[in-house]
């Protein structure tokens, strides 16, 4: 098991927006092998909501706009997916 101090020393160098971007990228990479556009759309929509609702005191303003874009792209991916 990794010591908590090691994880804390890594995370102190980054703000929450950068960590969310990393987790978003890993979630997208994890959903690609499934081959389902609906799962991808759910990931995009969920992270769009997370980015849009993250307090602006923790991240720069452009993360909110990125979240709004993801909130628009997610439903488009959902409705264009084949059953």
UniProtKB/TrEMBL annotation:
Protein keywords: Membrane, Transmembrane, Transmembrane helix
Domain of life: Archaea
Annotated ranges, domain DUF8006: 1-82
Residues that span the membrane, as ranges: 12-32, 39-55, 61-81
Record InterPro entries: DUF8006
Record has Acyltransferase as a keyword: no
Keyword Thylakoid among UniProt keywords: no
Cited Pfam families: DUF8006
UniProt protein name: DUF8006 domain-containing protein
Lineage of producing organism: Archaea, Methanobacteriati, Methanobacteriota, Stenosarchaea group, Halobacteria
């Amino acid at each position: 098991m990794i010591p908590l101090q090691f994880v804390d020393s890594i995370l102190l160098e980054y703000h929450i927006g950068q960590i969310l971007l990393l987790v978003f990228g890993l979630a997208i990479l994890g959903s690609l092998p499934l081959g389902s556009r609906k799962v991808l759309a759910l990931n995009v929509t969920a992270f769009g909501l997370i980015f849009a609702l993250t307090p602006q005191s923790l991240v720069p303003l452009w993360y909110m706009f990125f979240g709004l874009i993801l909130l628009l792209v997610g439903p488009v991916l959902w409705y264009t997916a084949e059953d």
